[in-house]
């Protein structure tokens, strides 16, 4: 990876995330999340993908927090601006409401498996804005715990991804997607996508995290 100052290392990401104070999530920012309002009811539905990319400043961080089921309890102004939704349209929605069809299911399976084990994960993600435009991020997703060490929600800090990283990960995601499309059942597709990734990691003798930060 061409490690410019704009792309922090995993350690730097952790430091940066901590410095912004987001780790102290209570999970109670939006107590009404038990009642999920359908996107259509709040007028928030993404257009189909336009193929246009939107970017943001390397210093900016797109933040969301979710409850344990992945429903959004908090979104910062940068996230709302780039995603193109109001706060009212965002809070309470399942995080999949910004899912882009070019994202392999296998990546989200890995994300959820890792979070459920109480561990953090870094992932390159392309998201769909309300306009149908898309934006790439390097996401650092972490579980948050109460004082007793019980998980109470999740937290994602998304940072700018470099062009070179995007091109490399897109090539891998395309291979995962091609394999996933051979399956009609979602779990089968996710497992097939994950196998592609695991095979690649085995060939390169890398852990997933080493691979992500080698890009
Ligand atoms: C804290 C957190 C942040 C997430 N951020 C995103 C995101 O930015 N984009 C996305 O498509 N999915 C995100 N997800 C994953 C979604 O919950 C979901 O698994 C994914 O969109 C795939 O949708 P599906 O599970 O309905 O297939 C996030 C999950 C959590 C817990």
Task: Provide an overview of this structure.
This protein is α+β, with helices and mostly antiparallel strands and 215 residues long. The chain has a single domain, classed as PAS domain (Beta-Lactamase, 2-Layer Sandwich). The chain is built from seven helices and five strands. It has helices at 10-19, 77-83, 87-90, 105-116, 163-180, 186-204, 208-212, and strands at 62-66, 72-75, 121-128, 134-145, 151-160. A five-stranded antiparallel β-sheet has the order 2-1-5-4-3, sandwiched between helices. Strand 4 and strand 5 form a beta hairpin. Helix 4 (105-116) packs across helix 6. The protein is globular. Mean pLDDT is 86; it is low at 1-7 and 14-34. Flavin mononucleotide (FMN) binds next to strand 1, helix 4, strand 3 and strand 5.
Q: Which tags fit this structure?
A:
binds flavin mononucleotide, single chain, disordered N terminus, five-stranded antiparallel sheet, 5 strands, alpha+beta, 215 residues, Beta-Lactamase
Compact overview of the structure:
The protein has helices at 10-19, 77-83, 87-90, 105-116, 163-180, 186-204, 208-212; strands at residues 62-66, 72-75, 121-128, 134-145, 151-160. The protein is an alpha+beta fold and 215 residues long.
């Amino acid at each position: 990876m061409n490690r410019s100052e704009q792309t922090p290392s995993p350690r730097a990401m952790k430091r940066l995330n901590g410095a912004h104070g987001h780790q102290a999530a209570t999970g109670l920012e939006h107590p009404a999340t038990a009642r999920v309002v359908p996107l259509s009811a709040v007028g928030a539905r993404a257009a189909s993908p336009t193929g246009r990319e939107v970017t943001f400043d390397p210093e900016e961080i797109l933040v969301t927090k979710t409850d344990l089921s992945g429903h959004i309890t908090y979104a910062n102004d940068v996230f709302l601006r780039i995603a193109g939704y109001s706060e009212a349209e965002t809070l309470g929605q399942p995080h999949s409401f910004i899912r882009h069809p070019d994202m392999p299911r296998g990546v989200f399976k890995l994300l959820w498996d890792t979070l459920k084990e109480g561990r953090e994960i870094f992932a390159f993600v392309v998201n769909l804005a309300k306009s149908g435009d898309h934006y790439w991020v390097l996401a650092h997703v972490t579980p948050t715990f109460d004082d007793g060490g019980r998980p109470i929600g999740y937290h994602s800090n998304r940072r700018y991804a470099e062009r070179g990283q995007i091109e490399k990960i897109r090539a891998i995601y395309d291979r995962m997607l091609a394999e996933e499309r051979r399956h009609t059942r979602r779990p089968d597709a996710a497992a097939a996508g994950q196998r592609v990734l695991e095979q690649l990691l085995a060939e390169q003798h890398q852990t997933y995290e080493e691979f992500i930060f080698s890009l």
